[in-house]
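Checklist before submission:
- one chain only
- standard amino acids only
- sequence pasted in full

Submission:
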Amino acid sequence: QVELVESGGGLVQPGGSLRLSCAASGSIFSINDMGWYRQVPGKQRELVARMSRGGITNHADAVKGRFTISRDNAKNTVALQMNSLKPEDTAVYYCFVEALASRWSRLAAYWGQGTQVTVSS
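Returned file contents:
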């Protein structure tokens, strides 16, 4: 079983910055993509940014130029640096990992418990 532990959410004023971090642990054979999604009440979970093992990134248009995803393959961690935050960035942010738990298992998606980010003055 793969476990994800997130940290770094909180309350920030518009224009401010936050950094989210996520560490994967447990039974991990290999990790493909890592990333972040977010969700607000009443809406579907949406992609914020994800990164392949080889470093190819995909950022949602709404966050391009403001958010930057990074990962450390040796430590199985992924981070999201969020700058120039806007009230519309307020959401619960979920860490996402696509991984093989063992050599014989299927590729599966794993999710963190979510961390609240609130952008408000």
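Reviewer check: Residues 41 and 86 are 17 Å apart (CA to CA).
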